[in-house]
Amino acid sequence: MKSEPGARKVLKVLQFTDTHFFADAKHKLLGVDTAESFADVYKTAKTKHGIPDFYLFTGDLSQDETEESYKRLASAVSDCGAPCFFLPGNHDRRDEMKRGLLFESSPFKSERRLLTENWQIILLDSLVEGQVAGHLAENEINFLKACLDEEPKLNALICLHHHPVAMGARWLDQIGVDNGEQFMAIIEAYPQVKAVLWGHVHQQYDALHKGILLMATPSTCVQFKANSADFGIDPVPAGYRYLELSADGQVESSTNRTEKIACGLELSSAGY
What we know:
Blueprint: E1 10-16, H1 34-49, E2 54-58, H2 67-76, E3 84-87, H3 94-101, E4 108-109, E5 113-115, E6 119-123, H4 138-150, E7 155-159, H5 170-173, H6 180-188, E8 193-198, E9 205-209, E10 212-216, E11 239-246, E12 251-257
Parallel strand pairs: 1-2, 2-3, 3-4, 6-7, 7-8, 8-10
Antiparallel strand pairs: 1-11, 5-6, 9-10, 11-12
Helix pairs in contact: 2-3
């Protein structure tokens, strides 16, 4: 489907990921009130950058996989002023997500392909329900190829939840997208692909691979320790990513964080 979130020469985008909302406001993730932490991140982003052309929510929007948790998230961004596009992560459930996010007054939209004057943004589904690791099914691979074949002159930003390349952390690299090599081989064959953006890893990652920017973004709640063999919590503030997509294919990106670590964070946790 086509969408027109903005036709300006520079597209401004805010990415939020791994929000981990609960249906019950009393529930917490590793000691953190995820809705409260998101509210702090959201306020920081709007204050610093204003209203973007659109928002990207790249999975694990819920922690308890309930319709109500998604409704709480939609309510939290009801004043966002721009369309919100989303994809599922391993803590999400597709049907509950759609019911909780896609209602008449919601800012969330169902499009998985956004076409603007100079860019196309492709949202891929790497969720395998009931599993932590991800996989890009054949229909997702075909969707990706079709989008890129149809619009060879448009710069492309590709989004998914699971990481398609190794992060240098043993435990995390066991739960990425299991056909990442296939995905990377495909995008390398299309020169219009400028960047890949994901969540899942709860940390910042920026690299350049054969001219393609690879980016992972901090969670809006709890952060994972980078380059760690085993699960570990990083005592740094929650964050988000801001992107500017220029007409010539240039991508300017920055990861920004709140001023303080989320209240109640359980640093000694061995997992969740």
